Amino acid sequence: MIPAAVRHVRASTLDEALDALADPEAKALAGGQSLLPVMKLRIVRPSLLVDIGRLELGGFHLRDNELRLGALTTWDTLESASELERPSFAAIAECAAEIGDLQVRNRGTLGGSLAHADPASDMPAVVLALGAELVLRAADGERTLAAEEFFVGPFTTALAPGELITEVVFPLVAGSGSAYVKVEHPASGFALAGTAAQVTRDGKQRVAVTGVGSHPFLLPADADPFDALADAEIYGDRFAPVEYRRHLAGVVARRALDRAQERMERCDE
Amino acid sequence: MSESVIGVSRPRVDAPDKVTGATRFAADGHVHGLLHARLVLSTEAHALLQRVERDAALAMPGVVAVLTADDLPLASAGSDRTTEPLARTEVVFAGQPVALVVAESEAAAEDAVEAVVVEYEPLPAVVDVEDAMLPGRALARVLEEDAGGGDLESIHAGVDKGQEDGEEEQLSGNVLDTIHRNAGDATALLEASDVVVSGRFRTPWVYQAYIEPQVATAWLEPNETLVVSTSTQGSFVTQRELARAFGLPLEQIRVIAEPLGGAFGGKLALMEPLAAGAALALRRPVRVVLTRAEDFQATNPASAQVTHLKIGARKDGTLTAITARMIVDRGSNAGWGVEGITSLLVAGPYRWEAHDLRGYGVQTNRFTFGAYRGPGAPTAAFALETLMDELAIELEADPLELRLRNAVVENDVGVSGNPFPRMGAVEVLERIREHPLWQARDSLPDNEGVGFAAGY
After folding, report:
1. In chain B, where are the structural domains located?
2. In chain B, which residues have their Cβ closer than 8 Å to the Cβ of A4?
3. Do A1 and B291 touch (CB under 8 A)?
4. In the beta sheet, which residues pair with residue B99?
5. CATH number of A1-56
6. Are B355 and B167 in contact (CB under 8 A)?
7. Where are the CATH 3.30.465.10 domain residues in chain A?
8. pLDDT in tens for each of the 456 residues of chain B?
């Protein structure tokens, strides 16, 4: 439970952080709630930690047609943000409130969790269902990537070496409702199956599933969740075998859709 | 007459210190010149230990020693965890301590553990307890005879062991102990019974899950007294076990039982021989603290068990006979088992006209076995009480009345052959009968129910 020896630098500007991250053995440290546990188990052993915790990458920017969240926004901030009370974004706050425990939510960050890409983490389902885009910065420039392009495998993303997530951009879909529902492992709190849903006025549905496969994924648009999951590649383990998990994913998807629908109907946007 | 203290709430004497964080547990104490030991655990379930390559670890900064069994001043050649705290020549479970890395800091020790290379010659691993019993099966231990359990057995399984009949059954050498209790012709009586129910019950290994992991610190006083400060359930048994391990007189060993962060049967002389052995070898204070992951792998959960049970009754609800075959997975390295007590308790607090109860203690390449909260009792009650409910269904009888009709009272002779003392089985069942929850059991919402199970 003691990490291997590691150097630590605290970046005071984004450029400084990106320069330091050019070292292929470096890892970015934000809230540390995912990275430090795996370092303690020595599953991950970077030689350099680039501490980005003091960069100004937090906060909300709600504009006419989008919500921009800084990568260092903590779960605690998302959980209690008045901006996220509107039905379109309710899934974000609802999801954040169910992550880990109080200590984890005080430290853990949006960008850190997405970059870590634990196949059972919660927020990836929300960014997928709400059609978010990720702003990625490297020393030589910036690009924007749809969430659907970002998650590619267990703990594996489309982040290039040296790249940092700086912002997550959620489009405002006027009059929509959203929700996140999971059944969690009672000890770890991670999702055995978790789903985020978005329902719009014109009857369109987007559902994303996490915790059941190699990485979170979107179900085909407007499909019945049980049908859509029938052929999905589902992972099983000693806690939840494949077919149980497949069924569970369908159940939480239906619940998320129902709740998103309710929220949409109450919406006066 | 003074007022009764029963039923009156009293503050716990240790509560203020614990609530305010003032309690100092065994890993908290400051010891001058302390060295920190970390364990190298076996990655093989069953193997011959070929070589422990320690040079790379010894070359790392802060590392003082890499100790194997030969480096500890052990007095005897036993193969339980007191006399063989580190594997000597044969590894018998995955997670068995193979070497101790001792360093000036925990971090240095943990770094160096990764640099120790252990070479194994793998042997067939015995992991299925029922299969392991069959004649001709691979043995879970090929080199050494198992030693006795020392004082540990008397703490948790000090019961009469029934007749030892070396009869009939052909069994492999993995079966270390057989128990047979029998009276009357149980098989014939079951055949003649109006109703018979039976089942096979498999229960897993159970980790005691104390919050404070295993820990011990040992040092030598200037007068050569070996002092061990530890998280233990038994300071005197630990003192005797250390005397047995290192051939020291009792008066030269002092065991300090620190405030206990949970134990539940699991903390009896596991870490102390390691810390004491290292302290004796290096003549410096040494602390061993397990991480949770190590504690899961390297300690002594309660036995897995397979129970074949059959019981019968007459139409009027009188129990007739019970037959049991109880296979206790002793895992590796333990000199004792719960097959004796579990095959006694499986008869429950009931009268039987005949019984035929067998217990088998079987070695495998699983964990070392340890005690947990009434060793052998929950596994026995689980099997019997499940069948008692099934019997009630077959008889269309009330499960409580069925038990009451057959519950033992003072001076009834149990399957041990001894009369029961006053034990309250009838009184307890009668109180359940009056309980509002039991009274209302037929008017509960769908998918809700009330059940109970007896045990002693």
Report:
1. 152-204+302-442
2. 111
3. yes
4. B40
5. 3.30.43.10
6. no
7. 59-269
8. 567 888 888 889 999 999 999 999 999 989 999 999 999 999 999 999 999 999 999 999 999 999 999 999 999 888 889 999 999 999 999 999 999 999 999 999 999 999 999 999 999 999 999 999 999 999 999 986 544 545 555 555 545 545 555 556 899 999 999 999 999 999 999 999 999 999 999 999 999 999 999 999 999 999 999 999 999 999 999 999 999 999 999 999 999 999 999 999 999 999 999 999 999 999 999 999 999 999 999 999 999 999 999 999 999 999 999 999 999 999 986 678 999 999 999 999 999 999 999 999 999 999 998 999 889 999 999 999 999 999 999 999 999 999 999 999 999 999 999 999 998 999 999 999 999 999 999 999 999 999 999 998
Sorted by sequence, the CB contacts under 8 Å of residue A112 that are 6+ apart come out as A28, A30, A31, A32, A33, A34, A35, A71, A72
* DSSP secondary structure, B265-333, as one string: T--SSSSHHHHHHHHHHHSS-EEEE--HHHHHHHS-PBPPEEEEEEEEE-TTS-EEEEEEEEEEEEEES
Classify residue B402 by burial, with Cβ atoms within 10 Å: 0-12, 13-18, 19+: buried
pTM for the full model? 0.84
The set of residues, in sequence order, having a beta carbon less than 8 Å from that of A39 and lying 6+ positions away, is A3, A4, A6, A45, A46
Q: How far is CA A155 from the centre of its chain?
A: 12
Q: CB of B340 within 8 A of CB of B149? A: no
What kind of architecture, by CATH, is found in domain A59-269?
2-Layer Sandwich (3.30)
DSSP state for residue A90 in the 8-state scheme: H
Domain with CATH 3.30.43.10 in chain A: 1-56
Give, in degrees to the nearest 5, the angle at Cα B361 between B360 and B363.
Answer: 135
Alpha-carbon radius of gyration of chain A: 18
Q: Is B114 on the interface with A (CB under 8 A)?
A: yes
Comparing alpha-carbon positions, the chain A residue that sits nearest to B107 is: A2
Residue B153 to chain A, least CA–CA distance (Å): 34
Which chain A residue has the Cα nearest residue B109?
A2
CA-based nearest residue in chain B for residue A1: B291
Residue type for B316, please?
Answer: D
Distances (CA, A) of A157 to A118, A122, A153, A229, B212: 10, 15, 7, 23, 38
Rounded Cα–Cα distance for residues A221 and A225 (Å): 10
A2 touches chain B (CB under 8 A): yes
- b or e along A82-102 (b: 16 or more beta carbons within 10 Å of the residue's beta carbon)? eebebbbbbbbbbbbebbbee
Is B86 within 8 Å of B68 (Cβ atoms)? yes
Domain B152-204+302-442 CATH class label:
alpha beta
Interface test with A, best of B60, B291, B294, B297 (most A CBs within 10 A): B291
Residue A154 φ/ψ, nearest 5 degrees: -65, 125
Helix (H/G/I), strand (E/B), else coil: A222: coil
CA proximity to A168, closest of A212, A123, A198, A202: A123
**Model ipTM value:** 0.72
CA-to-CA separations, B230 to A47, B14, B69, B130, B274, in angstroms, rounded: 36, 18, 21, 37, 12
Put simply, the answer to whether B293 touches A41 (Cβ < 8 Å) is: yes
